[in-house]
């Protein structure tokens, strides 16, 4: 894409058919990064800094995808069983936000402390609150008509398509949906595309969009934001600030939907303890020498031992 400064390259020798966007006119990101659980988390004190980095031109580094992801505990637990397509989008996302207080706590235990939780819902709120954001062309894949109506009322330049109940286990259905609405999304010429249909459907949809986005249209940033719009427009109540800071937002949500969330919180997500233990063992294992780890700003950190 000459106009946008985008070139395409093969992702790696093992996946030559996978296209990865490379910005030929890049800038150095100002955001610090910390590698945890195999993901390159953004480490910052204010989600507004992340919003500014996303909106600034040329922010996607070589080999990365113009994608925002917001992993929480359940996301990390489920990621281990996700398809290679989902793994690829997650692994190469330019912006990976720690959307879960237990992830922040675990980072401190592991000696790689993240400054604070950076929630996807807070990111969406920060973008929506910025006056200049309303002048940007955006597109949204919404989870329902009520969300779509509120988005179009709130943002005058938003193009919204509504996804049906897409089964997460049928990627072909998600690809078919993307192909049905591709012309509409491309025609909007958006700077940002919000995909709000939940993990892992968002990642599958983003992969399909990246594969099909034409070279003569500027490539947008794709944001996988889950239920963020439901919170933005008050359709789902967020926990009070003190509960969020104390890491008790899960308890607030469980009190609202105990039947739906019991298995998630008390059965499935217990596996996060094992993920932390595995990360601890990996970092405690002796190493032959120091390693240089990219921070995302062009600088590196030297790590030795753990």
Write a concise synopsis of the structure shown:
The protein is an alpha/beta fold. Helix content is 40%, strand content 18%.
Outline the structure in words:
It is a single chain. The N terminus is likely disordered. The chain has one domain. Helices cover 40% and strands 18% of the residues. The strands form four sheets. Strands 6-5-10-9-7-8 form a six-stranded parallel β-sheet, sandwiched between helices. A two-stranded antiparallel ribbon has the order 1-2. It has a two-stranded antiparallel ribbon with strand order 3-4. Strand 1 and strand 2 form a beta hairpin. The protein has 13 helices and twelve strands. It is α/β, with parallel strands linked by helices.
Helix and strand succession?
EEEEHEHHEHHEHEHEHEHHHHHEE
What is the arithmetic mean of pLDDT?
85
**Major beta sheet, specifics?**
6 strands, parallel
* Strand fraction: 15-25%
Shape: globular
> What's the Cα radius of gyration?
19 Å
What is the rounded distance between the termini? Answer: 42 Å
**Poorly predicted spans:** 1-20
Number of helices in the DSSP assignment: 13
Structural category: alpha/beta
The strands making up the biggest β-sheet line up spatially as: 6-5-10-9-7-8
SSE topology:
Elements: E1 6-10, E2 19-23, E3 32-36, E4 39-43, H1 47-55, E5 65-69, H2 73-79, H3 84-92, E6 93-96, H4 101-109, H5 120-129, E7 138-142, H6 145-154, E8 158-162, H7 171-187, E9 192-195, H8 201-212, E10 221-224, H9 228-232, H10 241-245, H11 249-256, H12 258-266, H13 272-284, E11 291-294, E12 300-303
Parallel strand pairs: 5-6, 5-10, 7-8, 7-9, 9-10
Antiparallel strand pairs: 1-2, 3-4, 11-12
